[in-house]
From TrEMBL:
PROSITE patterns linked to this entry: SIGMA54_INTERACT_1, SIGMA54_INTERACT_3, SIGMA54_INTERACT_4
Top-rank taxon, per record: Bacteria
InterPro entries, per database record: AAA+_ATPase, AAA_lid_NorR, Homeodomain-like_sf, HTH_Fis, P-loop_NTPase, Sigma_54_int, Sigma_54_int_dom_ATP-bd_1, Sigma_54_int_dom_CS
Domain Sigma-54 factor interaction, chain residue ranges per copy: 140-369
Protein name: Sigma-54-dependent Fis family transcriptional regulator
């Protein structure tokens, strides 16, 4: 059987010698006396378990040690004199960053068990980490029914060249969907130009879209190619299309009908081949009803309509997204943070997420940096505390319910003959009567 590998950080080497004497035949320990060597040793395929010997409370530089040991999926065990656990700095460090600790003198049996537990736990966490992290498609995370339906729609839409109107709340992933359509369509080698109509001052939108000739207006020192022309042979993504001023909507409609543009200050018509993907977080149909959006343009853009579901409508995906975001930001976290508490995961399920995935990303990034806990809590995320979990029965309750079931079914079988049932169940009549009483069984 191949030996389990462990790392032993021991400056004096005394514990290492003592561990060797314990003769753990199934373990092979690499002993190192400094953190630089440890860092190098961990850069390959690191062991699953590490032991750190503390000769004194300050024997290792705390920050460097913590940053080293938080970086790898290794379960760490501290070895120290019991008195050191009174130290105000060391005890919290051990509690935060270590799987367990072992006090001196070494107790062979206890150390063997601690090593075994740590190894088992490390095997599980490493297997979990190697599990595919990004269930989903097109660079989007999600496995809920809603997202799978969206993936199927994106797939179908990518193969046609029609305009698409993408609806969905703020931060739900509309731009990501537009990029997915582009990168899976025949236009994938052409440009993807994104433009937010809501973020550009109305007097500049025309030249942003159509471009201008030199001298077209004061400040137009050079000819400028507009976004429509820049997106030639590719995709123009118009975010917040509802913010396009009414007069420009007419110009834009003309471009959609004729596939030509005229730069501001020019008379020349330029032919362009651009697919339009537009997004809106407002109800564009209502904007049409209220006279803020041209009906003819609406129908032109809305040939295909996609709706990105709000995060609260796909709460099945929240844990998956949270883990993905956690792993994407693993290098920017407080060293002791290891993941989410189950309470935090429940709080995330219960919260309505008005800012959708973007809000989820922001809250998790903040919590990963600021949390002082090993497992992020709802408070770290700035969310209301989760409701209590439905009570799981205690062992006593579970045992009582099984006992009751067995006694009742036997009483039924032997027509309430207590002596017979007692014999069948291997207890005395007195005991059986006591149980019938305690379990509130009606004879
Ligand atoms: N399913 C997803 N998987 C992974 N990341 C996602 C997913 N959906 C959205 N995101 C991320 O969330 C953020 C917001 O997404 P995006 O910008 O596409 O939203 P939006 O709907 O365009 O927002 P807005 O309405 O504010 O323009 C981005 O960082 C994006 O990468
Ligand atoms: Mg957007």
């Amino acid at each position: 059987m191949s030996k389990r590998k462990g790392l032993l950080l021991d400056q004096q080497g005394t514990i290492s010698a003592a561990v060797q004497r314990l003769g753990f035949t199934d373990w092979d320990f690499l002993t190192l006396d400094n953190l630089d060597a440890a860092r190098k040793a961990l850069s390959g395929r690191p062991p699953l378990v590490g032991l750190v010997v503390f000769d004194s409370a300050r024997s290792w530089p705390a920050r460097q040690l913590e940053s080293l040991i938080s970086r790898h999926q290794i379960e760490w065990i501290a070895i120290l004199e019991r008195s050191l656990m009174q130290d105000g700095d060391l005890a919290p460090l051990v509690a935060r960053s270590f799987h367990d600790f072992h006090t001196l003198p070494l107790d062979r049996e206890r150390l063997r068990m601690t090593l075994g537990h740590a190894h088992g736990k490390a095997v599980i966490s490493r297997a979990a980490a190697e599990f595919p992290q990004h269930p989903g498609r097109f660079g989007m995370t999600g496995s809920s029914d809603r997202m799978q339906a969206l993936f199927r729609q994106i797939e179908r839409i990518s193969t046609v060249d029609a305009p698409v109107l993408i609806g969905g709340e703020s931060g739900s992933g509309k731009e990501l969907v537009a990029r997915a359509i582009h990168s899976h369509s025949d236009r994938k080698n052409g440009p993807f130009i994104a433009m937010n109509c809501g973020a550009i001052p109305p007097n500049l939108i025309q030249s942003e879209l159509f471009g201008h000739e030199r001298g077209a207006f004061s400040g137009a020192h050079q000819r400028k190619i507009g976004n429509i022309e820049a997106a030639n042979d590719g995709v123009l993504f118009l975010d917040e299309i509802g913010d396009l001023p009414l007069d420009l909507q007419a110009n834009f409609l003309r471009f959609l009908q004729e596939h030509t543009i005229v730069r501001v200050g020019s008379t020349e018509r330029v032919r362009v081949n651009v697919r339009i993907l537009a997004a809106t977080h407002v109800d564009l149909h209502r904007a049409v009803g209220e006279g803020r959006f041209r009906e003819d343009l609406f129908y032109r853009l809305n040939v295909v309509h996609l709706k990105v579901p709000a995060l609260r409508e796909r709460s099945d995906d929240i844990t998956l997204l949270a883990d993905t975001i956690f792993n994407d930001n693993i290098h920017q976290k407080a060293p002791q943070v290891r993941g989410f508490s189950s309470e935090a995961l429940r709080a995330m399920q219960e919260y309505p997420w008005p800012g959708n995935v973007r809000e989820l990303i922001n809250r998790i990034q903040h919590a990963m940096i600021m949390s002082e806990n090993r497992l992020i809590t709802s408070a770290d995320l700035g969310l209301p505390q989760a409701q209590q979990e439905p009570d799981t029965p205690t062992l006593d309750e579970a045992r009582a319910s099984v006992e009751k079931e067995i006694i009742v079914s036997n009483l039924r079988k032997y027509r309430n003959n207590v002596s017979e049932v007692a014999r069948q169940l291997g207890v005395s009549r007195v005991t059986l009567y006591r149980m019938i009483d305690r379990l509130n069984i009606v004879l």
